[in-house]
Write a structure and sequence with these properties.
Elements: H1 13-37, E1 41-47, H2 53-62, E2 69-73, H3 79-82, H4 88-91, E3 100-104, H5 107-115, H6 121-141, E4 145-152, H7 155-167, H8 177-184, H9 186-199, E5 207-211, H10 215-242, H11 270-294, E6 298-304, H12 310-317, E7 326-330, H13 336-339, H14 345-348, E8 357-361, H15 370-374, H16 379-400, E9 403-410, H17 413-425, H18 435-442, H19 444-457, E10 465-469, H20 473-491
Parallel strand pairs: 1-3, 1-4, 2-3, 4-5, 6-8, 6-9, 7-8, 9-10
Helix pairs in contact: 1-10, 5-6, 6-16, 11-20, 12-20
């Protein structure tokens, strides 16, 4: 990919001034347009050491309103970031609608720096390429613009610039032995980086290679590419918004049906289950410590009908956990700030650190349940979510080395009505029943169909669904604990 670029390209001062100044003004206007259209934008500046990443970033910033962008200078991962999957640290930095996130180095530099030094780096890098492409495609599908530039210079030019920096007392500290080592291996890394860029050069997030020997030429080309890409998107958005209605996706049939039933374990008494639960909880505590010692994260997802018993189930599951080793993530409707991001953003933020548990009381599956049934998102959006969720869960399992257990708590319609009425009569439980619960009940059949499709299309090898028959609450609690123990032991 690099072979076809001419690194001798230059631009004279007059041409530079005449071409760049109008582009700067246009970029400033486009930033306001993006804000009004509520389009999130990601600008990535990558390149060789000493190729001009800082200079280019500074130039772009000078043309932007500082209230509308965030700059992320990506360096080595912090302890907190190392305790999460690789892409987590970048997901949490994605911009809200209408804002710009500017990355001076990004997931690309970190993938190369962290994977090339590891055993089995070829497979690791291949896995990260897949994760990166999924990450960028999902952001693009949700409406984000992704603009990526790679500043390319020759080995000889890099040497000249590194020596210049070393001679300057103000910049000498930037040139470390590690950077010189990378320079000496330039010819070794060149084909690796070339392949890395080629395999992440996609329709939704293409690369722009910037010939950066002449700094003015590089800046001019970066500005030109930014303005051209943003104008194209703004024009497309205006055209799309002028159209009346969009063609809907045709719903795909379920691919992996999951059998559901609400009744089981009726022979188990409350006393029997409490005795079993006590032994299981002690066993779970031991597993809790083993996972912590081995730094293995684990996610437990609870979904189910209203009044199916999620809260009581979670309480029994976590009763003997070390309180420093787990978090319960209660999921409600997204707030205004969360709505400004990709819908998965607020869940990925709460991924467990290495060795910890995260228990989601409802989850990202709201996209294909509540948001689908209530019309809070469009049909193309919830149809697309099945693939996005599967990709997210697979990437989490593969990149973190952790596991996921997903529970659907099933009760029948009569049992739900019984529990609703009990809650209304009990002063200590009245807070659990709302008008929204009754409204949702009126749409039982719509939710029932959505649940069937959700279970079928997101029941995967790496994150299978487990239906918990929950008409009998105590049986449900025992089964859930047994399944978590089985899932963690399998992972260990």
């Amino acid at each position: 990919m690099f072979e076809k670029y001419d690194l001798t390209k230059t631009i004279d001062d007059a041409t530079f001034e005449n071409s760049v100044n109008p582009l700067k003004e246009r970029l400033s206007i486009l930033q306001r347009t993006l804000r009004d259209l509520r389009i999130p934008t990601i600008i990535v500046i990558e390149g060789w050491n000493a190729s001009g990443i800082t200079m280019s970033t500074r130039e772009i910033i000078h043309s932007l309103d500082p209230r509308g962008f965030t700059l992320h200078a990506i360096d080595k991962a912090t302890d907190e970031e190392r305790a999460h999957p690789f892409m987590w640290r970048f997901w949490v930095k994605t911009p809200s609608k209408g804002r710009i996130a500017l990355f001076a180095r990004s997931w690309y530099s970190r993938a190369l720096a962290e994977k090339l030094s590891s055993i089995g780096w070829k497979k690791s890098l291949k896995d990260e390429i897949n994760s990166i492409n999924i990450f960028e495609r999902q952001l693009s599908d949700s409406g984000a613009i992704i603009i990526k530039s790679f500043l390319h210079i020759s080995k000889d030019e890099q040497k000249v610039r590194l020596l210049e920096r070393e001679r300057n007392p103000l910049t000498a500290w930037l040139v470390t032995p590690r950077i010189w080592d990378f320079h000496h291996n330039y010819d070794t890394y060149l084909p690796i980086i070339d392949e890395f860029i080629e395999k992440t050069d996609t329709e939704y997030a293409p690369w722009q290679i910037i010939e950066a020997t002449d700094r003015k030429y590089a800046i001019s080309k970066i500005y030109s590419n930014l303005v051209k890409t943003l104008e194209k998107r703004v024009a497309f958005e205006a055209d799309e918004r002028s159209k009346k209605g969009r063609q809907k996706n045709i719903s795909k049939p379920p691919k992996n049906p999951v059998h559901r039933r609400s009744s089981a374990g009726s022979a188990y008494s409350k006393e029997d289950c409490q005795n079993i639960l006590n032994n299981l909880q002690i066993e779970m505590l031991e597993i809790n410590y083993i996972l912590f010692k081995r730094k293995i994260p684990f996610i437990i997802v609870y979904e189910g009908w209203d009044a199916a018993g999620k809260g009581g189930n979670i309480t029994r599951l976590a009763r003997y956990f070390n309180p420093l080793g787990y978090d319960v993530v209660p999921v409600a409707a997204p707030n205004d700030y969360e709505k400004e991001h990709h819908y998965l953003w607020r869940f990925i933020r709460h991924y467990p650190k290495a060795g910890h548990f995260a228990i989601y009381d409802r989850s990202w599956y709201g996209r294909v349940l509540v948001e689908r049934v209530e019309g809070y998102c469009s049909e193309p959006e919830w149809q697309r979510a099945y693939q996005e969720i599967n990709e997210m869960e697979q990437d989490y399992v593969e990149s973190s080395g952790g596991g996921i257990v997903k529970f659907w708590l099933e009760i029948d319609k009569d049992e739900q009505l019984k529990r609703f009425n009990q809650r209304e009569k009990d002063p200590l439980k009245q807070y659990k029943i709302t008008e929204e619960d009754w409204r949702n009940r009126e749409k039982w059949d719509l939710y029932d169909a959505a649940v069937d499709e959700m279970l079928a299309r997101t029941n995967t090898r790496y994150a299978p669904w487990i239906v918990i028959e929950s008409n009998n609450k105590w049986y449900a609690r025992v089964k859930a604990l047994k399944e978590v123990i089985r899932g963690t032991e399998k992972l260990l």
